[in-house]
Amino acid sequence: MSLFDLTGKLAVVTGARRGIGRAMARALAEAGADIIGVSAQLEESGSDVEKDVTAAGRSFEAVRCDFADSGAVRALSADLAGRERPVDILVNNAGTIRRTPAAHHRDADWDLVLQVNLSAQFTLTRAIGAGMMTRGHGKIIFTASLLSFQGGITVPGYTASKHGITGLTKALSNEWAAHGVNVNAIAPGYIATDNTQALQDDPVRSASILDRIPAARWGRADDLAGATVFLASDAAAYIHGTVLPVDGGWLGR
Ligand SMILES: NC(=O)c1ccc[n+]([C@@H]2O[C@H](COP(=O)([O-])OP(=O)(O)OC[C@H]3O[C@@H](n4cnc5c(N)ncnc54)[C@H](OP(=O)(O)O)[C@@H]3O)[C@@H](O)[C@H]2O)c1
User: Fold this and answer.
1) Which end of the chain offers a freer environment for a tag, N or C, measured as fewer CB atoms within 10 Å?
2) CA 203: distance to chain centroid?
3) pTM, two decimal places
């Protein structure tokens, strides 16, 4: 369908090596976009996400960058913003989590999570978004969380970072919407990835989470495909500054 067609577009997907980011990159490629995948440990060639993207008939470029390193993020931002072929779609999905009760949460864990999940996203988006504004079009999608709305348990830094992401989504949208740039976020529910492995492995937490999900199952990374393509496409042209939950109904409970 032409409304959702991304043929000829170039998308940057961070955290593309596995989990939700890999599924988002595959979905965008299947809709027609070429992909630049970014992550901390992304293989130069032969990664799973590269195979997904090339199987869809699209080009893939791997960029390795550790978002914990602010200098490396600045260099990445300058590189991507300065290229001849402009970035049409930016998916800010890379993220990490540290689970420790608040009273014992170490400064190093707090700083790392805020840097990777929030500060790095701002640095990259500022650089790529500026070019989108100048060109008069672009799509930016952040990966928020249910912990953009709720407090969570033993993840204070993660919760703060994800609340920050929804604020940043709205702040950037307010400045950039009139320049043709759509800034939105997707809030995944409980998705079975490495990020939630500790919860999946805890029978008590796992059962109590499942009990609250109206869809009666944990999410899969592929459940994020439709929302990603939608927000990256012309179908979402008048959608700005919103956070779209893809959570099996969790927030409605
Ligand atoms: N799973 C859920 O239930 C859930 C729910 C809500 C929101 N989210 C959010 O969804 C996003 C993706 O999470 P996921 O569940 O797919 O987790 P995941 O399987 O752990 O994948 C995380 C991705 O982020 C990348 N990443 C982590 N730290 C990085 C760093 N320092 N520098 C650069 N890249 C880094 C990883 O890179 P490498 O592969 O190279 O290590 C990986 O590709 C995150 O923002 C997460 O907070 C997840």
Assistant:
1) N
2) 28
3) 0.98
